[in-house]
Design brief:
Helix content is 17%, strand content 45%. It is built from 1 helix and 6 strands.
């Protein structure tokens, strides 16, 4: 049985991080794999993985994903 899946946008003041996106998939991911977040079937964002989690490497892309999530209706994580 898999653990719950979490999609988070978090602020970490002690690290100086704001609006940091992360996904906890609830199961181990393949090494050197990626996760794709799709907003409204038209905008795709690629996240890098480690163990059971995924993050965006570039801060500017992270900001674009947050904008897309705010204006979008559907989001799929694969």
């Amino acid at each position: 049985m898999n653990d719950p899946v979490f999609f988070m946008v978090a602020n970490w003041p002690d690290r100086g991080a704001t609006n940091e996106i992360s996904v906890i998939m609830g199961y181990p991911l393949e090494a050197a794999s990626s996760v794709t977040v799709t907003i409204d079937t038209t905008e795709n964002f690629t996240l890098f993985t480690q163990n059971d989690a995924a993050w965006i490497r570039e801060l500017d892309i992270e900001a674009q994903l947050i904008v897309a999530m705010r204006r979008g209706i559907d989001m799929v994580v694969r």
